Each structure stands twice: as structure tokens, then as C-alpha cells.
Amino acid sequence: MTNQLSKISDKKDSEKLLSVGMDFEEEKRAGSFLQQDNYMMLAEGFSDSFELLGVDEAFKRYPEVKKKYYGRAFKEIGKEFEPGTEGGYFIRVKKGKTVELPIQACLLLKTQGFQQKVHNIVIIEEGAKANIITGCATATGINEGFHLGISEFFIAKDAQLNFTMIHSWEENISVRPVTCVLLDENATFISNYVCLNPVKDVVMYPTALIKGKGAKAYFSSLLLAHPGSTLDVGGRTILNAEGAHSEITARAVSLGGTIYARGQLIAKSKNVQAHIDCNALLVSEKGIIKAIPELETELKDVQLSHEAAIGKIKKEEIEYLCTRGMTPEEAQAVILRGFMNIDLMHIPAAIKDSINFIKEKTLAEGL
Fold it and tell me: Whole-model pTM?
């Protein structure tokens, strides 16, 4: 195995890349992709079970991929997407193959004021299984810019993808992830989103279309909104096949920022089940949290439900921990660590330690 990632990464950016789960040694990764602004720095895989390329290279090498997949998920879901992107990654896991280690990809804003616009395509062929971890971040010293990440996922029959996205931006960065997912029979798509650092605004509302019987889609988010930040995050599932199942969950904390936790479930087939759950804490009275669930069906034989709870840290909890020798600030941090428990998400075991490290570091610096 080569180790090109550590060779090409700017040392002063290493900490930012680590903060979004990148493994420089690559010993616990199946492959690595890195794009800075609109320039692809690296795309390498260490297994014959999958392909990892820049999306432009994939289109040149496989013209049929562009013809068959580019824009298809958006068309089937009935959404529009912005053309004129530059770069992005292409990942295809081959039929019946299981990629044990996570495939990692990073999109880095390297230039002040740059508008990064990428289009990613991920194909998980029939019976295949994989974990992907993507990190999006700004380089050290970059505090203004824009990121548009268009992603299309195709999860074939009996295939499974666990996709984890971690963001680490700066206070004047605007972020727009736009995602569409198509699921065939008995396919499973798991999306984990983590945003703990200050950012100007994030607006993301991924949509999954369940086309095949027994398919499952899960969206979970872990959000920390700092003063001046707006996080408008959610998920939407269209259950268009019998036996389909979906869950949309959010754990959200406002330190003074604004959070919109959205979820929409649309049942278009009988015998489907889906649930939305939002649990949020308002730490600062200057913050705003809104939970916005939507349930839609014209059928009787469906089970759609939602639950939301928004509260604050109880004074008695702080006082109790203070009697154990903690300062009020330390007590608050302990409570938030427990509340933001990633065990409640569908995080793969291979990257749980990385995300726990990121969470602990963020809470230690931000509270």
C-alpha cells in the first residue's frame, strides 16, 4: 500500500483534515480521495472490490456511466440540480463484494472566497457492501467561500452503504449539499451527518426514493450550532415500495445559533413504516431551534410517526455535578457529551473512535 495522502497534504492543513475524519496513514482505510478547490489531488484504492476515481476521469474511462447515471437520480425523484460543476468523486463497489475498511474522501476549500462546486456519483452494485466517510473542510486561514456538493447514490438490490459526512467549516462559509438516493429491492442506505464547528449556514435536505420492496433508508444528524450559525438540516424519504422502512433522527444543540431540524416522509405504497425523531437542547436563550416534521400519505395501510423534544439543561443537573467538584462550565460540557451520544447513530465501528475524538475536541474548545 502506498501512502500518497500524507505526502501531498499541506502540513498546516493536516489538523483540519484530521478534524473531518481523514486517516493520513491509511492503514484503516480502503482508499482515499482528495480534492482542493476544483483540482483533484489524489484518488487511490487499495482493493479490487471497488473503483475510486475523479468523476471526470470516470466519465472519460466509462462513457456509459455518464449516460446511465449522471442526473438520473434527480430526474427520477423530480428534482433539479445545478450543472457546471468541477470535479467530485466516483465510487463503484462491484457486485457481491464487501469492502471492510471505510473508503475516505475529502473536499477542501483551499482558496479565499472560492466557490467549490462538485458532483459525486456512488454506485453500490447488487449484493455489495461498503462504508464511506467524507470530510468537507476549509484550509487553515480561509474564512470565506462557498461549497456546493451534488451527490447521487445508486444502491442496487441487496446492497448496503453506510455513508458518513463530517463538516468542519469557518464562520463565513455557506454550504449546500444536494443529495438524491435511489434504492432497489432490499437495499439499505445509512446516512450520518456531523456538523460541530462554526459555519455561516448549511442547507441540506437529502432525498431517498425507495423503489424496491423491503428497502431501508436512515438519515441521522449530530448538530452543534454556534452563535451566528444557521443549520437547516433534514431528510426526506419517498416510500414507493411495499415493506419499505425509513428513520430520520436528529440530535441538536444550539449554543446561540439557529437550527431547523426537518424531516419528511411520503408513503406511496401500502405496508410501509417510517419515523422521525428530533431531540434538541437550547443552551443559550439567543439560540433558535425548530423541529419541522411532515408526514404524507393517501393510503390506510401505512405507519408513519414523529416525535420531537426541545428543552434546556436542567439547573438541578448542573448543581448536582458541581457538588461532585465540577465547575458549572465543566458540568455543562459533561451533560452535552452525554446528550450528543453517537451510539444513537448508525456510525460504523471502524470510524466511531475518530468521530468521538472530533466531538470531544470540539466541545473542549467551544464551550
Answer: 0.93
